[in-house]
Design brief:
Layout: E1 10-13, H1 40-51, E2 58-61, H2 73-79, E3 84-89, H3 94-97, H4 100-104, E4 108-112, H5 117-124, H6 128-142, E5 149-156, H7 164-171, E6 178-183, H8 203-219, E7 223-224, H9 237-240, E8 243-246, E9 252-253, E10 262-266, E11 269-273, H10 286-290, H11 293-303
Parallel strand pairs: 1-2, 1-8, 2-3, 3-4, 4-5, 5-6, 6-7
Antiparallel strand pairs: 8-9, 10-11
Helix pairs in contact: 7-8
């Protein structure tokens, strides 16, 4: 069977998988390997290969690390100044690392803020007032420019959802483009009861989101909401946007979820996550990996929804394939049938 090969348009570039924080809900707690920065030799190779692919329009600096930690952060922005550059960040190093020329080369910042003072100290070890000072510094560097835009991502759970109202009061004065609410993806069973979403009939959360939406109108904020309950629609942001992910070790992986080892709990069911790589840039060029028949077939399968769905399967409780992502009940690998990103419970940037 022939599959249509779309050109590569978006690259998630993980300059480092190190971070200056140890957030309570971070996937990095599940890792065995020590975090590392992308080596200089690999960085040069990656940059050169991306520049050889004219269809690439957007570079997202982020992944599972804090990009401002990387020694190549500024150089990367300068190198790709002719492309759209998005930066995902915890926002705690703006005053230390950002300059006006660097900010001028960035189109979008996505900053994670999960609550007010008590929640931020407990969950991230971050002082809320200090973080707001970092945001103010970014806005000062922007001066009169409309860009970079600033989106705030709020990971919602039962522990912090009440903070969304006072947080909106503060963010209303911070030149925010979007406030994106994304759900908690539990890493272990102790977090399983903290989720707000359900498989079916979630009137309580629908009513809460209605209140949040009305309050956002009063504060002049635009909010992007996740789903409250399971829907039929599935859409992979990586596949639909012709995107790939390059890890700090040069692995080409399809998405955030399959970028590193770890664990997750899907509607009370623990699952082992393993990295799924379509190749490493040290042994095969980026364009060749993107065009590889196996990777093309995978993207076509996901785009056309030709893969199983675990959450609404009648046999899920007795299935032996739900405990990892090795392969699904069609015999295909990796197993994306339980992905809550595709269900719009969790958002990719």
């Amino acid at each position: 069977m022939q599959y249509h090969l779309n050109p590569l348009k978006k690259v998630y570039l993980e300059l480092t998988d190190s971070c200056n924080l140890e957030c309570e809900i971070c996937y990095r707690h599940q890792w065995v390997e020590e975090p590392r920065d992308m080596s200089e030799a690999l960085w040069k190779d990656v940059v050169a290969q991306i520049r050889e692919i004219p269809s690439v329009e957007t570079i997202v600096l982020g992944g599972m690390g804090e990009p401002l930690v990387s020694p190549f952060f500024h150089q990367t922005i300068e190198t790709f100044k002719d492309k759209q550059i998005w930066v995902t960040s915890n926002g705690t190093m703006f005053r230390e690392k950002l300059t006006a020329p660097t900010v001028a080369g960035i189109n979008l910042f996505i900053v994670s803020i999960d609550g007010m003072q008590e929640q931020m100290v407990k969950g991230r070890g971050v002082d809320f007032k200090e973080l707001m000072a970092e945001i103010d510094f970014l806005n000062q560097l922007k001066k009169e420019n409309d860009t970079p835009h600033l989106d705030i991502q709020f990971v919602a759970s039962r522990k912090n959802i009440d903070d969304i109202f006072p947080l909106m009061d503060v963010l209303a004065e911070k030149k925010i483009r979007n406030l994106v609410i994304s759900h908690l993806m539990p890493q272990h069973l102790e977090q399983a009861d903290d989720i707000l979403y359900k498989r079916y009939d979630n009137q309580e959360l629908k009513q809460l989101f209605h209140r949040i939406r009305n309050y956002s109108f009063k504060r002049g904020l635009r909010i992007i909401f996740p789903e409250t309950e399971l829907k039929t629609e599935r859409r992979c942001a990586f596949v639909n946007n012709d995107a790939t992910y390059i890890t700090s070790r040069g692995e080409i992986v399809p998405c955030y979820r399959l970028s590193h080892q770890g664990s997750e709990v899907v509607f009370g069911r623990p699952k082992v996550i393993r990295q799924y790589s379509f190749g490493n840039l040290k042994s095969k060029p980026l364009q060749a990996i993107w065009s590889d028949p196996g990777y093309v077939r995978f993207r076509s399968k996901i785009y056309n929804n030709h893969y199983p769905s675990c959450p609404d399967c009648d046999l899920v409780e007795g299935c032996s394939l739900i405990h990892d992502v090795d392969f699904d009940c069609h015999g295909e690998e990796p197993n994306c049938a339980d992905c809550l990103w595709a269900r719009k419970f969790v958002f990719c940037n």
